[in-house]
Amino acid sequence: MSETAEVTIVGSYVSPYVRKVLACLMLKGIEFEIDPITPFYGNEEFTRLSPLRRIPVLIQGDLALSDSSVICAWIEEAYPDRHPLLPATPADRARARWLEEFADTRMGDVFIWDLFYQKVVHPIVWHEPGDAARIEDALNVGIPSVLDYLEGELPQDGFIFGEVGLADVAIASFFRNAQYAGYEVDAQRWPRAAGFVSRMLSHPVFERLAEFERAQFGVKPAERRAALEAVGARLTETTYGLPEPQKGTMRL
After folding, report:
1. Would the pLDDT of 2 be above 50?
2. Domains, the chain, ranges and CATH?
3. 202 within 8 A of 181, measured Cβ to Cβ
4. Which of 18, 130, 148, 159 could tie 11 with a disulfide, CB 3.0–4.6 Å?
C-alpha cells in the first residue's frame, strides 16, 4: 500500500461517523474522493468491505477500513506531521479517545437511532413513520442526560484541547444531525454545550461539509450524485450502491 494513493471514502455526507472522518481528513489537508451511499443501499461488495454494513469505509490502495474510530486513528498515524488530531500528553490523549467513544456510542444511540433515524431517515428510506415513543424518550431523557454530562466536560471558550481535534469533531458531528431533526441545544440550561456546538458547527470544515449535506436533502437517491457534483464534491467514478434500499445489519 502506498500512502500517496488516492483516499476513497464510502458513505453518506449526512452520517455523523462519515462527517467525523471527512472533517479529520480535511483538518490534515488530505485529498479524498467519496462514494456517497448509505448502508441501506450497499451492494455485496460493500458488505465484503464492511461486514457489519457500517459507514464510513476508507480505501487506500489495498487497505480497507470500516470503523470510524479505527479510520481516524489510522489518519493520525499515517499523517503525523500534519494538523494533530490528538493532544500531546498521554492523559489528554486518553481523555480525547474516551470522548470520541462516548460520542460514537451514547450520543449515537440517542441522537441518531432514537432521534434522527426515527424523524428523518425512517420516513425517507422506508416511507413510514418512525417510532414516536423513541423520539419522545430521546428528547426528554436521553439527550438531556448527554448534555448534562457534556456541560461538565466542554470548555467555556475555544476547544477541548486547544486546537480543534478528534474529540471536538466526534462530539460536534452529532449535533449537526440533531439540527436536521429539528433539535437545538437550550443555551440557558446548557451554556457551555451550546457555545461549543455553535463554535464547532461554524468552523470552516463543518461549514464546507454542510454544503454537501444540504445538497443531498430534497433530492432522490438516484439524483444525489449529480446534486453533489454540482456543489463541487469529488465523487468516485463507480459506486457500491444499489438502486433500492435493503434491510439488514447496518449502521449509520
Report:
1. no
2. 90-204 (1.20.1050.10)
3. no
4. 18
Q: Measure the CA–CA gap between 88 and 100, rounded to whole angstroms.
A: 16
Distance CA(20)–CA(205), nearest Å, equals 11
The pLDDT assigned to 248 comes to 59
Q: Which of 44, 49, 47, 58 is nearest to 11 (CA)?
A: 58
Residues 6+ apart with CB under 8 A from 83: 27, 28, 29, 163
Please give, one letter per residue, the 3-state secondary structure of the chain.
CCCCCCEEEECCCCCHHHHHHHHHHHHCCCCEEEECCCHHHECHHHHHHCCCCCCCEEEECCEEECCHHHHHHHHHHHCCCCCCCCCCCHHHHHHHHHHHHHHHHHHHHHHHHHHHHHHHHHHHHHCCCCCHHHHHHHHHHHHHHHHHHHHCCCCCCCECEEECCHHHHHHHHHHHHHHHCCCCCCCCCCHHHHHHHHHHHCCHHHHHHHHHHHHHCCCCHHHHHHHHHHCCCCECCCCCECCCCCCCCCCC
Q: Give the model confidence (pLDDT) of 91-100 as tens digits.
A: 999 999 999 9
Q: Are 136 and 183 in contact (CB under 8 A)?
A: no
The pLDDT confidence band at residue 252, using thresholds 50, 70 and 90, is very low
Mean of per-residue pLDDT scores for the chain = 92
